[in-house]
Design goal:
Helices cover about 30% and strands about 25% of the residues. The protein is an alpha/beta fold. The strands form three sheets. Strands 3, 4, 5, 6, 7, 14 and 15 form a seven-stranded mixed sheet that branches. Strands 10-9-8-11-12-13 form a six-stranded parallel sheet, sandwiched between helices. The chain has a two-stranded antiparallel sheet with strand order 1-2.
Length: about 350
């Protein structure tokens, strides 16, 4: 079978690999859509593992069913996630799935930028879901990233009518904007350094958009009746945005640090100011099974317009081109690879 093998951001090669053989409890899935995630281009994280087949935002069709699997049949349309928790350790039982050892160790074989993927039994058991008829493969490839956003919103306890600021209006930022709108937040203010992304942020529901190099706190106050935002989501790993976020949170509000910074990056905190203002700082990673289900429901109900986010659809042989688009930004928002194209 054909796979797109990652060596670094500028070296992705189309290669041949043996067809995966499945065992008891496993599935073989023909990949129909695989989204390129912003985390796929983090070289500090990816290059040490190279050569590797990336791709974790996937949907497809069941090709083979392993012994003992009774929830799925050949021909089922499914969406799945690469990282799944054990659901039984002390972390999972207290809704801290992101730090579960099992979640960190689970993965696809080989990865979503390939024609076929073997799903280990644990992924089949708690990370794979049948698609409703109205959800396309392309839309289903957003279930995993949207599930990550769903978890982030759960952790900040967003309530209808609360003001939201989203710093960074890339793929994740636009999902956060749409989810905030779906959950009744408002006003929603978005920032970015790129004018095109600010246009996209407004198209997908931001009430106000601000250049990241402007006086963002002042802009938030102007859009929010003189107040800062009650919930601030940092959807970029850029240190200036992380610093800026602390000045964007209203008293008693919550800052969600969502995108990771590069290794070794440190930040000095104005501790007295954070304490005096009652600022809550939380972070989030991954989307446990229940959040995957919720994300799929939101997409099926058309509460979040993921189809409208797709700007480019490429073949497996064009995966390098897709990575270039994500790295350079410009007119791309979401790039989806279709291995069967």
């Amino acid at each position: 079978m054909r796979v797109a093998v990652y060596y670094n951001n500028r070296d992705i090669r189309l290669e041949e690999r043996p067809r995966p053989e499945i065992g008891p409890g496993e599935l073989l899935v023909r990949i129909e859509a695989s989204g390129i995630c912003g985390s796929d281009i983090m070289e500090w994280y990816r290059v040490p593992k190279a050569p590797i087949v990336l791709g974790h935002e996937v949907a497809g069709v069941v090709e083979e069913v392993g012994e003992g699997v009774d929830r799925f049949s050949v021909g089922d349309r499914v969406v799945t996630t690469h990282h799944v928790p054990c659901n039984s350790c002390r972390y999972c039982l207290t809704d801290r799935h992101s730090v579960c050892d099992t979640l960190q160790a689970t993965h696809f074989d080989p990865g979503g930028f390939s024609e076929l993927v073997r799903l280990p039994a644990i992924n089949v058991d708690r990370g794979t879901f049948k698609l409703p008829d109205q959800v396309s493969f392309e839309e289903a490839s957003f279930v995993e990233p949207l599930a990550c956003a769903v978890r982030a919103f759960r952790l900040v306890g967003l309530e209808p009518g609360q003001s939201v600021a989203v710093l960074g209006s890339g793929i994740s930022g636009v999902l956060f904007i749409q989810l905030a709108r779906a959950l009744g937040a408002g006003p929603i203010i978005a920032t970015d350094i790129d004018a095109h992304r600010l246009t996209e942020a407004a198209r997908f529901g931001a009430d106000a958009t601000l250049p990241a190099d402007s006086d963002v706190p002042a802009g938030i106050r102007e859009a929010n009746d003189g107040r800062l935002a009650e919930r601030v989501f940092v959807c970029t790993g850029a240190l200036p945005a992380i610093r800026q976020a602390l000045g964007c949170v209203d008293r008693g509000g919550t800052l969600m640090w969502y995108a990771p910074a590069d290794p070794g990056v440190t930040l000095e905190l104005p501790l007295l100011e954070v304490w005096a203002n009652g600022t809550n700082i939380v972070h989030s990673y991954a989307g446990p099974p229940d959040d995957m289900r919720r994300a799929l429901e939101l997409i099926a109900a058309r509460r979040v317009d993921v189809a409208g986010m797709v700007t480019h659809r490429l073949s497996l042989a064009e995966t390098q081109q897709g990575f270039n688009m994500v790295i350079e930004g410009e007119d791309s928002l979401k790039v989806v690879v279709e291995p069967q194209r």
